[in-house]
Amino acid sequence: MLTQQEIMMIIEGLRDTLIIVGLSTLFGYLLGLPLGIILAVTDKDGIKPNRIIYKILDLVTNILRSFPFIILLVVLIPVTRAIVGKSYGTGATIVPLVVAAAPFIGRMVESSLKEVDKGVIEAAQSLGAGNGTIIFKVLLAEARTSLLVGATIAFGTILGYSAMAGAVGGGGLGSIAIRYGYNRFQPQILWPSVIILILLVQLFQILGMRISGKLDRRKK
Amino acid sequence: MSENIIEIKDLNKSFVSEKGHVEALKNVTIGIKKGDIYGIIGLSGAGKSTLVRCINLLERPTSGKVIVGGKDLMELNDRQLRSERRKIGMIFQHFNLLMQRSVIDNVAFPLEIAGKSKKEARKKALEYLEAVGLSEKAAAYPAQLSGGQKQRVAIARVLASKPEILLCDEATSALDPQTTKSILTLLKEINEKYGITIVVITHEMSVIREICSQVAVLDHGELVESGSVEELFRNPKTEEAKRLVYSGSTHVLSMTSKKVVRVFFNGQDSYEPTIGNIILETSTPINILYANTENVNGNAVGEMLLQLPDDVEKADRFIRYFEEKGLNPKEVKYDADSAGNNDDN
Ligand SMILES: Nc1ncnc2c1ncn2[C@@H]1O[C@H](COP(=O)(O)OP(=O)(O)O)[C@@H](O)[C@H]1O
Ligand SMILES: [Mg+2]
User: Fold this and answer.
1) Is B334 near ligand 1, meaning CB less than 6 Å away?
2) Confidence (pLDDT) at B340
3) Rounded distance, CA B302 to CA B294, Å?
4) How many angstroms separate the CA atoms of B215 and B232, rounded?
5) Helices A90-114/A77-84 angle, 10° precision
6) Tally of CA atoms within 13 A in the half-sphere of A213 that contains its CB
7) Which spans in A67-129 are helix H?
8) Integer Cα distance of A28 and A34 in angstroms
9) Which pLDDT belongs to residue B255?
């Protein structure tokens, strides 16, 4: 069985994972939410179409999205070092995760906002609503359940990426699973780490769906 | 200055898309007087929605002028346009309520836009909900309401921005006849109580007949006929207008080959059992193919299509009777080619 020390290590790994994934999701949204809003607003049937802005952001988003995450990790090492001061550990994992997550989140936000009924937007415009009002009180408010489902997916994806980051010196459960489970072949550490990761994804999935279901007023 | 609250001059609108070039509106000129209920009727695709969306510039015309309340809307900047739009309410076929907001918060929405606090907005909103008879649904969400109730909420929401004009784009087209009637009654009330000028867009003649005083007929982007509703019903001049006025009857006509006359009612004639009397008198049954007699602005007007007996003498007897009664009978020639064109609704 696991020693006291190993259990402590797994618990610390869980804590680090939650910090990494939580912060990455947070910063990911700090960048991805505005990105998604601008994409939805400037697209040709958005509320303020702008071909140039849309094309540029669209291209950048696509390029970042098509980078394999493992390559992004390596490419970003100098950037990570510049921001965090070192290229390994918990803090250092967050930088590539945010860079990978932001365009992904941006796309999900864009598609959520584009689901909002054009007629409702038009009704708001006919009432004299400006673009700011429409973004906050119509687009984001009407799309909230879809946005929340998106956030659940983002969280799960970032969690998966964070495990991968463990392979190149990141912190958290993924790193433990790789270091002990794979490099030193200790299945008694590998499996608990993997199972905790799976449970974590499940937990957030269920939680996210519940909350978004509760928030949805479209049902009778 | 003219007395028209809405003045549309030489309006053109064309759409350019991958499929090609569509001229949705061609040289449309309309003047709408303050306080009127003005109908715009046409078949689907005629350009009605485009026209009404040009009145609040949701759609920017390709050329022409849109003057509302004396202001040339195309000259305004964004901020000025938004403030003018608050005076031009709009309701839609599919209601377009905010689905994630409660009924009261939907009505409060334009008040929030106008800068009222949430609390103040809600208080005012409740008054408007009362005005449309829905205050008990304040806490409900739109998904829990029937179509007619949703349209009432949309009307309360529009009233909350204190408009001078209300544009209705097929506002009753998604509703059953009963509900349609109650919404039209509400619109009429609003027109009278608040003095709001109403523009009604529809493909249904019955809607025009029910509440409009003036009407314009739109066909393939062109305004082909306009004038008072009574005049249009009594004497439609253009092919398109005739087709719309008799839209219900052409179908019926295609089923018969016998002699058919159209009779008109106006004033008290509608209240007499005119048709019943002649049937009793001659003890010959006639077939009512189509009837549409209704109350237009206090006058009973309407028309019927009657299939007369095959017997020429008896048929003549009926025609003479209708002439005596001032029903202006006209024999209807059925044109097989134009009959199928009205299956739009
Ligand atoms: N955004 C658009 N892009 C291209 N064509 C359009 C657009 N909006 C309307 N049209 C075209 O303009 C014509 C009039 O449409 P519309 O005003 O919706 O008619 P109606 O409301 O009378 O049914 C139609 O041929 C329609 O296809
Ligand atoms: Mg339309």
Assistant:
1) no
2) 40
3) 6
4) 8
5) 110
6) 6
7) 69-75, 77-84, 90-114, 118-126
8) 10
9) 47
End-to-end CA distance of chain A: 52
B21 pocket-lining for ligand 1 (C-beta < 6 Å): no
Residue B113 forms contact with A (CB below 8 Å): yes
* Nearest-angstrom CA–CA distance, B60 and B54: 6
Question: How crowded is the C-beta side of A63, counted as CA atoms within 13 Å?
Answer: 6
With 0-12 / 13-18 / 19 or more C-beta atoms within 10 angstroms meaning exposed / middle / buried, residue B298 is exposed
Interface check for B154 against chain A (CB to CB < 8 A): the answer is: yes
Distance B343 CA to ligand 2 centre (A): 16
Distance from CA of A142 to the nearest CA of B (A): 6
Mind listing the pLDDT tens digit for each residue in B121-147?
Answer: 999 999 999 999 999 999 999 999 999
Is pLDDT at B117 greater than 60 in this prediction? yes
Going by pLDDT thresholds of 50, 70 and 90, the confidence category of residue B254 is very low
Tell me the percentage of chain B whose pLDDT exceeds 70.
88
Question: Tokens standing for A50?
Answer: 């702008």
CA nearest to B274, candidates B235, B2, B264: B264
Residue B198, amino acid? I
Mutation test of ligand 1: which of B49, B90, B94 has the most ligand atoms closer than 8 Å to its C-beta? B49
Single pTM value for the model: 0.82
| ipTM for the predicted complex | 0.90
pLDDT digits (tens, 9 = 90+) for B213-228: 999 999 999 999 999 9
Report the SS3 class of residue A130: coil
Name residues with Cβ closer than 5 Å to ligand 2, which is an ion.
B 49
CA distance B223 to B48: 10
The C-alpha atoms of residue B11 and residue A137 are separated, in whole angstroms, by 33
